[in-house]
Design goal:
mainly alpha, 5-stranded mixed sheet
């Protein structure tokens, strides 16, 4: 095997040589590439102001070469395998690769361009090959296996034992037990899948950016608020359109308010169809063929690994364990959600009739007439709430909740490199003043940023020389941008999103583990820290702290809080149904057990398959799944493959966990918060996820609190 490892290092070295030669011609050699030196920045954040696009590929290729040499050293040492010289050495390998690729990946999501996308496609097969060279190295696996088989006699502590277990498991799940021919097939599949997932995401971003609804007649703005009109005028100006035009896009802060408020039904239809047809327009960015290949190749990989379907392969490492448990939970929620949805549709049709219309509601009518129904029932609409949800105040509200729960503080950092000029930076300190980490926040949409909201990082928490290295965390959103001369005002949904991603941020900031290999938690547990934070958003005592009118500073009135409380469950039929529909679609793709016979002519009809999945569950025609197949990046882009159900699985946990606070009569109960931090937020993946939850709660959760919170109980 020594020969194979040496070949890997040699290939990487050759690639590096080619990159370096090219880069030297443009002045970007190792002497001025920031990734090759220690960062001399505050808190050791990446020097974003000095990093150029040309720096990424040479650093990543060099990182591959260095890690290949490190693996070579582990494999070829004369000493018998020990926990330190094999498991720890493997866990600590690849420092430069991690340093460069972490920054590249985060920036490629939040601030990409054609050059970055090209580099992604060039690096994808190289990184896939490198990962396989490690996981399919028989000599390395033999050392790991030797230690695993005598783990009981090694005198390991709990964290070390978990790292050994996870390392061994990763090798097995990475194909280490396959024969040589099957390993070659696996390499090919992994490379193809990595490139396809990347292609899917790039196509989706291009499709989202391609659509524009340009309005040039004021009459067509009927129903929109002054803020929405001002934002559309600003968007048109940024796009280079002349005065007197208004631009609406498929970014959520643009399309969703338009669908809620525009009186122009034909325009609502146009933008709605633009949204749900992304990736399905038979053009260069069409994703149907990509989806076909992804589903087929994932199934082929699962079969190769000895599983009947891809979901079985994935779920083995999740809390759910198997597809039957996932479907059981989704079905338990689906039936009551459909019932509530039918009631909401009745209200919508009633509003249509009130206007003297006789048409049946379509997808582009739902949000518009639902807002009317909500106002009729509760005398409440979003325009009453936004003035009290100034972005800066909502952010401070999240900081306030974290301080009340855990005693931590967030202080703005000046004169620090930013990942984007619009980003903000904060230092997080523990109650005793100890530095916990740096938090970046980047709030507004742009063409270079993928849609949605997420929490990522530029450096994970780790240990060096026995000292904790603090994480560098980033929260990225696509909120409604401010109109000219005005602050950014959020919707309730956007406020909840900020708290949600902030919960992920707290998980990263609090994590305290010694090994990278046990830092993560199962996908269907990872949403617990984020979703529990949403419970504080509309609590009256929290609203009184941060929900203040952006012009007068007046606290949100008690009667408005009461209306928010009474209306909070209204619309959960729609919200739950669209979410569960997407979860079912994801699962149905990945429980397929039959491969197409001819891979040159894949016989999976994506549009027909999606329609069958939704129709057999009687999804109302007015409600598309939250993500249709061709823009379902959570599953097709990787990350949540056979795992989109995770949000609702975690919601069972977070609803039950918040009950632990409410049962004490104090939503900021210090003892409960301390237990949640100790058993959920701090330990990474040291324990089984359900064990961690029971350590906190003392019992397993049930679905009762979730159904109650969503208003799905009778």
């Amino acid at each position: 095997m020594k020969k194979n490892v040496t070949v890997t290092a040699a290939v990487a070295a050759a690639l590096l040589s080619a990159c370096t030669l090219s880069d030297k011609k443009s002045g970007n050699d190792e002497t001025n590439n920031p990734f090759f030196t220690e960062y001399s920045t505050p808190f050791g954040v990446p020097p974003f102001d000095k990093i150029e696009i040309a720096h990424y590929k040479p650093a990543i290729v060099k990182g591959i070469e260095e890690q290949a040499k490190e693996i070579d050293a582990i494999v070829n040492q004369s000493e018998e395998p020990t926990f330190e010289n094999t498991i720890v050495a493997l866990d600590q390998s690849g420092e430069l690769l991690s340093k460069a690729s972490t920054v590249f990946s985060a920036q490629n999501s939040a601030n990409t361009n054609d050059e970055m996308e090209t580099i992604s496609r060039e690096l994808s097969p190289l990184l896939s090959q490198h990962r396989d060279n490690i996981s399919l190295n028989p000599t390395l696996f033999a050392r790991v296996k030797t230690l695993y088989e005598k783990k009981e006699s090694l005198g390991l502590d709990k964290e070390q034992a978990k790292l050994l277990e996870e390392t061994y498991k990763d090798f097995v799940r990475g194909g280490a037990n396959l024969n040589a021919d099957d390993q070659a097939k696996l390499r090919e599949l992994n490379s193809q899948l990595a490139l396809l997932q990347l292609t899917f995401g790039q196509n989706m971003l291009k499709e989202t950016n391609a659509f524009q609804l340009i309005i040039d007649a004021e009459a067509d703005l009927a129903g929109l608020t002054e803020g929405q009109i001002a934002n559309a005028a600003e968007a048109a100006k940024r796009a280079g359109l002349e005065d007197g035009k208004w631009l609406f896009t498929l970014q959520n802060p643009s399309i969703m308010p338009f669908l809620q408020n525009s009186d122009k039904r034909e325009l609502r239809e146009k933008i709605f169809k633009g949204y749900i047809m992304r990736g399905n327009n038979d053009n260069a960015n069409d994703n149907k063929e990509v989806v076909k290949q992804l589903v087929t190749l994932r199934l082929e990989k699962a079969k190769l690994m000895g599983y009947p379907d891809y979901a079985s392969f994935v779920l083995e490492e999740r809390m759910a364990k198997n597809a039957a448990n996932v479907y059981a939970l989704l079905d338990e929620i689906w039936t009551p959600a459909l019932k509530v949805t039918a009631s909401e549709l009745t209200d919508i049709q009633s509003e249509i009739r009130k206007e003297g219309n006789t048409f049946t509601a379509e997808g582009w009518d739902w949000r518009y007439y639902f807002e009317k129904a909500k106002k009729a029932k509760f005398n409440l609409d979003e325009s009453q709430i936004r003035p009290y949800l100034k972005l800066d105040n909502v952010r401070e509200g999240a900081f306030y909740v974290a301080n009340k729960l855990y005693g931590i503080t967030f202080t703005p950092i000046q004169d620090i490199p930013l990942p984007h000029p619009e980003a903000q930076a904060f230092e997080c300190k523990d109650a005793d003043g100890t530095h916990l980490g740096v938090l970046y926040m980047d709030f507004f949409p742009r063409a270079s940023k993928r849609g949605g909201a997420w929490c990522g990082g530029y450096r994970s928490q780790t240990y060096e020389d026995g000292k904790r290295v603090a994480p560098i965390v980033t929260i990225v959103c696509n909120f409604t941008p401010p109109a000219a001369g005005e602050p950014a005002l959020l919707s309730v949904d956007e406020a909840e999103t900020l708290f949600h991603e902030f919960g992920h941020g707290l998980h990263s900031l609090f994590r305290d583990v010694h090994y990278k290999g046990i830092a993560g938690v199962p996908r269907d547990f990872v949403e617990l820290p984020s979703q529990i934070m949403e419970h504080w958003v509309l609590e009256p005592e929290v609203l009184k702290v941060y929900a203040k009118h952006y012009q007068t500073g007046e606290e949100i009135p008690a009667d408005l809080i009461d209306k928010l409380d009474k209306s909070s469950k209204y619309g959960q039929g729609f919200a739950t149904t669209e979410y569960v529909a997407a979860s079912l679609l994801d699962m149905d793709y990945h429980v397929l057990q039959d491969l197409p016979a001819n891979k040159e002519n894949l016989n999976l009809d994506v549009v027909a398959f999606e329609a069958e999945t939704l129709n057999k569950r009687k999804l109302p025609s007015q409600i598309p799944p939250r993500y249709r197949s061709t823009y379902f990046n959570h599953t097709m882009g990787g990350g949540y493959t056979a795992g989109y159900y995770s949000y609702i699985w975690s919601e069972v946990l977070d609803a039950d966990a918040f009950e632990a606070f409410k049962e004490t009569g104090d939503i900021f109960n210090a003892d409960v918060a301390a237990k949640f931090r100790k058993y959920v937020l701090t330990p990474g993946g040291i324990d089984d996820a359900m064990v961690m939850y029971k350590n906190f709660r003392g019992k397993e959760p049930g679905t009762g609190p979730l159904l109650k919170n969503r208003g799905l109980t009778d």
